[in-house]
Amino acid sequence: MELKGIHHVSSITATAKNNHYFYTEILGMRLVKKSVNQDDTSMYHLFYADEVGNPGTDLTFFEIVRAGHTYEGNNSISLTSLRVANDEALTYWIKRFNEYEVSHENISEQFGRKVLFFKDPEGQRLVLVSDQHNQGVEAGTPWDRSPVPQEKGITGLGPVKLTVPDPEPTVKVLTSIMGFNHVGSYASSLDGQPDIEVYETGKGGTGAEVHIEHRTDLPKERPGRGSVHHVAFRVANNDELAAWKDKIQAARMPNSGLVDRYYFKSLYFREPNGILFELATDGPGFATDEDVEHLGESVALPPFLEDQRHEIEARLVPLNTSVDK
């Protein structure tokens, strides 16, 4: 009953085509699954990850075509981290961002690590974090057919930052129910704001941290394109997920019950500041219905949607996801 780290982060895009270009051609991540939102099959659900979509490497996007602007604020997942192998890789990314006119800051330091803040074209708040000194959860392996050199590539998800007006109830859920431990803090970049507190689970390190930002000066975030929908944490197997369901229910927290996402099984609940958490199993994984060599090239549907394939595909705008594009 120990969460192993970050499983995936799911965000919102208004344009799947442009989103696909940025995350595969500029960031060099692999599209490992081109599917649909199982709760609304009119929208794409795209999964970008390492070479095979290992747990802890998946950044996913729901396409909501009419999604408006995000008004940043409290009660949000306000920053998503992407891991790279070392400090040298960040220098490569500065040059690449300049080449592709990606909005970014200079390399800085945060919690003893070199970091590089940047945004995607829809304003998604992102940061590259160096694993130069990481001794926690292992990283993934970038795809060797990426446009980014493999040794410079994105190796997985790093810490997520939660921005909340009252950290105490969120911290209580993380520590008393989910088993996270407090491991330190660092100064906010904003004058007059409290330090950002760091919590970790499992083996710890960049792949297993949640950072809590207490903001006293913000309204509640109004999500839209470029905002984060939820964060998922890794559970070893189905038996452990069932035990987590019992634990969440015993704490009187409303939850989804067990949900079969085909590539993994899940449990959803909201912590007291309204942020959506998911617990997701490590398996069976994305190669369940596609050969590893051809992940993400065709629309993949779980068996319970297969009889609707014709209608579903007719509503989707085609994406050029061939490796020969």
TrEMBL record:
The UniProt entry, under PROSITE patterns, shows:
VOC
The record's section on SUPFAM superfamilies has:
Glyoxalase/Bleomycin resistance protein/Dihydroxybiphenyl dioxygenase
Does the UniProt entry include the keyword Transmembrane?
no
Domain spans labelled VOC: 5-131, 156-282
Molecular function per GO: dioxygenase activity
Q: Which InterPro entries does the UniProt entry name for this protein?
A: Extradiol_RC_dioxygenase, Glyas_Bleomycin-R_OHBP_Dase, Glyas_Fos-R_dOase_dom, VOC_core
Q: In which domain of life is the source organism classified?
A: Bacteria
- Report keywords, A-Z: Dioxygenase, Oxidoreductase
Name the PANTHER family on file. Answer: RING-CLEAVING DIOXYGENASE MHQA-RELATED, RING-CLEAVING DIOXYGENASE MHQE-RELATED
**What is the protein's given name?**
Ring-cleaving dioxygenase
Q: Which organism is it from?
A: Aquibacillus rhizosphaerae
Organism lineage string: Bacteria, Bacillati, Bacillota, Bacilli, Bacillales
